[in-house]
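ugh ok fine here u go
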Amino acid sequence: MNEHRTVIHCDLNAFFASVEQQADPSLRGKAIAVVGGHGRTVITTSSYEARAKGVKTGMAVWEAKRVCPELIIVVGDNKKYQWTCTKINEIFRDYTPEVEPFSIDESWLDVTHSLSIFGSAETIAYRIKARILHSFGLRCSIGIAPNKLLAKLASDMQKPDGLVRILPEDVSRVLEGLPVGDLCGVGKKTAKALNMMSIYSCGELGRCEVERLTRKFGIIGPRLKLMGQGIDNSPVVAFDEDDDCVKSVGHSRTLDKDISDPVEINRFLLQLAEMVGSRARKYGVSGKTVSLYVRYADFFSSWGKQATLKNYINQSDNIYKAALGILCKVELEQSVRLLGISLSNLKTQDEQLPLFVEDRKKLEATKAMDAVNARFGNMVVTFGSLLPGKENAGNHVIPPSWRPDGIKNVKCT
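structure:
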């Protein structure tokens, strides 16, 4: 483990609900819950006042109302969340250029080279907390550690409004009895599989033979052992690094209501394809592999499939046709709750003009549409089939994977 790094993880507490309470003073101090739309019946997040009454994320509205009759339901507004997240990340960059947003309400900061300027990581953390509270009325929990894995773990230890530091010499003690499911990257299924191997704590995971983990989990086996030991050498990757680091471009949407009508599903696919295509063109990349992800109405069942094409694409209609081709080969078992499309296997887009006149016209029309949307807002100009009811398409709550600058940058494969 590299003990010479100092990484901060900042987690905004009850972010969506807290933003709504600051935007509407009448909601402050009250039990509120944010939902994705007027037709959506699942809680996206709730205020701490509501959590104290038993309201939890993923709970049905009727169930939340049963445990907390005074609960106020608020329809989320992703524009407010995007703007707030972007501004808060600007605060982070006042302390280090190495800022990696992990989600809409979480970011890592590598402050190793900033300590000589500000004195200590704790000083930076307290300044960040004070500025966010003063500017936005929001509280955050901060973790400080030698790497990203431990910094996120530390930020979860004292919520809300906590500040925890894990020193290198304390790592073994902290991890010894910690449940494996508390580690970022160990999901419920992996934790259950580890428990079935009689591995319950991070200490036990770190001592497990790597061969045993590899037999069970394949290539991630060695990585799991390192995680159990608190080892994570992954860098903090700034979201504004060079565009040639892009690995994939994707977007997903939780729908306002569960849908099964093929026409309606196809319309959402076209909307997602336009979002993905627009972002790919913005970053000057095209890809050969289109992936489609579907989550069913029961929340737990899902699948993902991909298709690799002969040619590189970034035109929205081509992405849509590829995603539709994947969907046509699958018989949907339930109504659909979430849809996602991504474009991968990328390369830098060739600026050479198409050979045929019709293709050149299409390219120029796309450039004009992108230019208008870049100036006046996403989807101001879009496909005609998306115009009726466009303002109600998708979820009013931004996906947690959203980044301030669109996509997360990693090395190309």
